[in-house]
Design brief:
The protein is α/β, with parallel strands linked by helices. It folds into three domains: about 100 residues, 3-Layer(aba) Sandwich (Rossmann fold), CATH 3.40.50; about 190 residues, Rossmann fold (3-Layer(aba) Sandwich), CATH 3.40.50; about 80 residues, Alpha-Beta Plaits (2-Layer Sandwich), CATH 3.30.70.260. The protein has a seven-stranded parallel beta sheet with strand order 8-7-6-9-10-11-12. It has a five-stranded parallel beta sheet with strand order 2-1-3-4-5. The longest helix has 21 residues.
């Protein structure tokens, strides 16, 4: 029986993937095997010694100290792409809000007073201040071509826009999904120079903080628009306000209100609703629940932000003879592990070892059950952080 502590409300569609005969799920557990959460901030949260895994029902993991968790042998799983459709749709909505000045037009319409004749007159007098622009022929620059960025780029093409993208780390899978009509920018600066609208779809880290700042905004085409439905901090709020006030920027649409942005003309700030659809919440919960099960029951690691991906198919007849080890990424670890198994007379059927940074993960199937004494020897190898049988 594995115990799962929930630190946020998790979609029932995900919790249903954890069978009650194998998993105890509760928001009140002192010694959980895993933690399942959404936006709960774990940076100051006391980590129980029993913890073996963390599942984030979403894509971003800035609320989890995942590097520190790796050092403790705890993989952190997330759900990349599970909310991509929801975020893409809101990004396109933000683009349309900005292009047609819809938010300010709504506020104007709400403020109208008088009888129908007076309102009609005010509408005709005031509507010229909300003249916008059409999308065909405009260029959208997409920074980050992951699950969301690719969907945004392809959708913008269907709306008649030109699209230029930049992502030096784009995967082969995402490249196959991206329309061939998307032009490649050699750098962020190259993209900004050629874009009327810029949309960012990257995680927040030391390399992307203030990715869009005053120098970058100054080289955009005049009266441009910036969309940020990724993370607060990727776009510098102060630089945005200055660019709007100077007339360089037409508008900024984001999912992250702040004191700096509050009440500013040209700014549309939504209350972090990018992934707030029933479908996205279900998809994220299901995806991360399945990954936790695969880790606990099979030892496989998929979509971890701090561990390597390691997946071995179970070999028929050897279903109960699997060992998984988390160890420091240092020389001769694999040799010591295989030697320990060989000295115990255990023949290895399949073995996979991969590393990520300072952490390595080993998964091995052997022909016979692994005695507790052998597991004790494996756990005692210098550099082994965690070992278990499955």
């Amino acid at each position: 029986m594995f115990s799962i502590l929930t630190l946020n409300n998790i979609s029932p569609a995900g919790l249903e993937r954890l069978p009650p005969d194998l998993y105890q799920v509760s928001d009140d557990l002192a010694e959980p095997d895993a933690i399942l959460l959404r936006s709960f901030d774990m940076h100051s949260y006391p980590i129980p010694s029993s913890l073996k895994a963390i599942g984030r029902a979403g894509a971003g993991v800035n609320n989890i100290p995942y590097k520190a968790m790796a050092a403790r042998g705890i993989p952190v799983f997330n759900a990349p792409g599970a909310n991509a459709q929801a975020v893409m749709e809101l990004t396109i909505a933000g683009l349309l809000l900005a292009a047609r000045n819809i938010a300010s037009a709504i506020e104007f319409a709400r403020s109208l007073d008088g009888d129908d004749a007076a309102i009609t007159r005010l509408v005709e007098e005031g509507k010229k201040q909300f003249v916008g622009f059409e999308l065909p022929g405009r260029t959208l620059g997409v920074i980050g071509l992951g699950a969301v960025g690719v969907k945004v780029a392809n959708a913008a093409l269907r709306l008649g826009m030109r699209v230029v993208g930049h992502d030096p780390d784009i995967t082969v899978g995402r490249a196959w999904q991206l329309s061939s009509e998307v032009r490649q920018a050699d750098s962020v600066e190259d993209l900004l120079k050629n874009a009327d609208v810029v949309s960012v779809h990257v995680p927040l880290n030391d390399h992307t903080r203030d990715l869009i700042d005053s120098p970058g905004l100054s080289i955009m085409r005049p009266r441009g628009t910036v969309l940020n439905f990724s993370r607060q901090g990727i776009v510098n709020d102060e630089a945005i306000v200055a660019a709007i006030e100077s007339g360089q920027l037409h508008s900024y649409v984001c999912d992250f209100p702040s004191r700096c942005l509050a009440g500013r003309a040209g700014v549309i700030a939504l209350p972090h609703i990018g992934a707030s659809t029933h479908e996205a919440e279900d998809n994220c919960a299901v995806m991360v629940a399945d990954q936790l099960r695969d880790y606990f029951e099979e030892g496989n690691i998929r979509n971890s932000v701090n561990f390597p991906e390691v997946v071995i198919r179970r070999h028929e007849g050897h279903e109960g003879n699997r060992v998984s080890l988390v160890n420091a990424n240092v020389p001769n670890m694999l040799g010591q592990i295989s030697t320990t198994l060989a000295q115990a007379g255990l023949n290895i059927v399949d073995m996979l070892n991969k590393s990520r940074g300072e952490i390595a993960y080993t998964l091995a199937d052997v022909e016979d059950p692994i005695p507790p004494a052998v597991m004790a020897k494996l756990a005692a190898i210098e550099g082994v952080i965690f070992a278990r049988t499955l």
